[in-house]
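Checked the freezer inventory, then went back to the computational side. Two predictions to log before the end of the day. The first one is the construct we discussed on Monday; recording sequence and tokens without edits.
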Amino acid sequence: MRIYKVGGAVRDRLLGKPVTDIDWVVVGATTEEMLAKGFRPVGVDFPVFLHPKSGEEYALARTERKSGRGYGGFTFHASPEVTLEEDLIRRDLTINAMAEDDQQNLTDPYHGQRDLEARLLRHVSPAFAEDPLRVLRVARFAARYATLGFTVAPETLELMRQLSESNELEALTPERSWKEISRALMEDQPQVFVEVLRACGALKVLMPEVDALFGVPQPPAHHPEIDTGAHTLSVLQQAAIHKQPLTVRWACLLHDLGKGLTPEQEWPRHIAHEFKGLKLIKAVNERFKVPRDCQELALLVGEYHTHGHRAHELKPSTLLELLQSFDVFRRPQRFEEFIAACEMDARGRKGLEEKSYPQADYLRGAATAARNVAVQPLLEQGFKGPELGEAIKRERLKALKTYKEKA
């Protein structure tokens, strides 16, 4: 029995990055031997075990063969005869196909270290094309390591293009796709994830609504970058720079989808794009079974982001409607995330990345003014039921009028 550290732990150590998750592969062992040493089995499809003390995962060396469509369409074979090289060749990228023994001696049969130095994301073997999820994984790695200068090798991008054109991406489950998308959006350069998907044709398959934004012009006076797709990528980049949570980043990606529906003869204006885009945002949310908090914020940002930009111009009644739409009295955090998404949208314009966004404090102040309306005096006046609701609304409207006059 020989045990090796494999994959990301080896890659990140060589890159000088912190090692978080460690994967282990066991060569020359049987399931019975693992159980005898106290390892606990957890693998359903293939033999994976938890270490009796550390709880880390140890997998028996295995080979795999394509047996059906999609991510799960594989037959695995694990036995003591499977070599370390055979186990490593089934991995996606050369930089993930290296192993170390307990003395940090490197096993690198597919030149992963060379590709690390060349800053290349390159597939290990033609079997890469058997797993459509790898298109998303490579794009995610590109987003993670873009700051280090990594790019996708041309031959790997070509394989990704072939996968995108083969209908294999459609076999991915919503859950697997969302797991990769959500992780990619939380990387340092999430816009690179979208760029790579677009470069290989996968964006058109997975998110045609986002792909349709590229080449659609906007008014130069408001958007010096002009192209809506370029603007969306810049907004996403700003969200990463400002360490926004996943909810905000997802909303930033989808906020302008309605502009992809504007007829060419109406370009560069996009009248009512906020409302037109809602059906597209819903479609993307449903396609990937996106978590509810991400779904809700994306829809609200899509509908109201221009309200955020025009905050100072809004009538008190419109301002109150906005606050009520977000249920700001019970869910203040969601309104904060809306404000953040609006600010990222404003900063995601060429040359305006550092421009202040006074609307943020104005909206927060409006929410505070409305929230400070006391209910107890109204109860003491005898208001109850629907009448109480109307009385609270009147008082909040009065508070917002005063706030607007003083602001």
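The second is the one RB wanted added to the comparison set:
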Amino acid sequence: MKMYIIIMNNVPDKLVPVIAAHASLACYKKYENSEDMKKWMNGIFRKVVCTANTTEFENLKNENDFVLLTESALDNQEVALAFSPREEYPKKFKFLKMWTPQHI
């Protein structure tokens, strides 16, 4: 089981760790009573943080069981999606790029 956290690719690197942390917590709070979330919480907390362009991000909003986050420091722009943990995700998730800092 794993939780996918998708970050918009235009979010500054310095904000991503906090946004990902908020996304994980917001997703947990929304789905804390679901069987999949309970199973995930009692196992290994696998999380995958990926990045998406605008088209990919909008397309992922057609999926089920997620929370959408905005960022006040970026004029309340939509910045992340966090998907409730599950065993299997649609194939398109496998093609998302893993997030890595742009300036190391």
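For RB: The longest strand covers residues 77-86. The chain has a mean pLDDT of 95. Let me know if you want it refolded.
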